[in-house]
Each structure stands twice: as structure tokens, then as C-alpha cells.
Amino acid sequence: MRKSVRHIVPCSTESAARRSFSHWSVSSSLGAHRTFLIAGALACATGRTKLLEDILISARRARVRRTAMEEALLQCYLFAGFPRAIEGLTVLHTHWPGSARRAHSAPGSLRARGTRLCREVYGKNFKPLMRNMSAIHPDLADWLILEGYGKVLSRKGLDVITRELCAACVLASLPAPRQLEAHLTGALNVGATRQQLKDAISLVSLACGVRVFNKSQAQHQRHGSRKRPARA
Fold this sequence. Notes:
Blueprint: H1 14-17, H2 31-45, H3 49-61, H4 66-74, H5 76-80, H6 82-95, H7 107-122, H8 126-136, H9 138-153, H10 160-172, H11 177-189, H12 194-208, H13 210-224
Helix pairs in contact: 2-3, 2-4, 2-6, 2-10, 2-12, 3-6, 4-6, 7-9, 8-9, 10-11, 10-12, 11-13, 12-13
């Protein structure tokens, strides 16, 4: 039975969107560490440098692993592009110094690893997804597996549930309703609860402001009312 993600996105208030990170609440479903990681990814992807600095200070105090925050920011390049990821990682390097590790994987292992994770995220929609990506552009289908799921999302240092929650939140801050729906469903497929999704997505309004958030929500709900092929 398909997990429904329609109407899962709550709304927040304009005043809440203006609060500093120190006033954000931590939900029991996410816990402090996941909240900091998702918030960091959001601040990075939306270019909110000062907010990211505040989040990093709070994360360090809460003893969040630096490698986990590094991974949450690094994967932003898939959804928000290299410029935002570079800026976010520069803030991390400046305000939370540390040695980043370099991953080495052969192309063959990246494809196998990427295929395995993509199947887990998309479930029964994996084959329709790949047909759709190949129809759009065959190279895009390869990059999805090799770059997206093989090289980035299957890296060590961050669990798959947190990665999917970060991805969904970043996509909720962008005009990308098809991808948002795919990763909301993907988060459920890899083990996130509906409450975790609601609590994670509620962070978007705090990071981006309610007007941006409502636009993304409306696009997502319009898409959810129509049947479409699986998307990345």
C-alpha cells in the first residue's frame, strides 16, 4: 500500500519565522542532534550564513558530531547546487575547524551502492523512476545513481533517515514539488515516522519564512492531487 504524503506539510506563523535559532524548539520525535543537522542543511541550502553560524554554535554545545554536520552540508550540492554547498562548508570550516575525510570508491562499487540505496528510497517506484529519468536524458539516469545515491547519499557519517529528512526539508524550501513528494515518500520508506516528517518540515518555515514555505506547500499539494510518473 502506497504511503500517502499529501497534507503532511504543516504551516507556521510569520512571527516564528523571525525567531533566532536559540528560540527554535526541539521535537521529541527528532531529538536535538537531528534538529541541528536538518536546520544546518536548510540554512546552507537557502544561503542564510548568519543562521548557519548560530546553528553550528548550538550544535557544538550539544555535542553533535562534526562529521555528521559536514555530511548534512555536503549533500546540499545535490539539491541546492555547488555554490550554496561551498558557502556552507566554508562557514563550517571557519567556525568549526576540523579535518574533512576524503572518500575513495571505484565506479563499480558506486553504481552498486547507489542502486541499492535508490531502490530502498523509492521502493516499488524505482523502475518507473529510472524509465522516466532515462526518457528525460540517459546521462541523467546514470548521474542519479552514480553521483546522487552512489557518491553522496550512501556515504558514511550520516544515517539514511537523517539524510532523507534533510533532503525533504531542503526541497520544501525550493520550488521542486515533484522531488519533494519523492523524498517525503522516501523518508517513510527508509524508516522515518510521519511525526518526524511533520516536525522536520516545520523547520522550513522557521528557516525560510512563511511566505516561501507556503508557496512550496501549495505546489506540493497541487502535484499530490495528480498522478505522475516517479521523479528523482
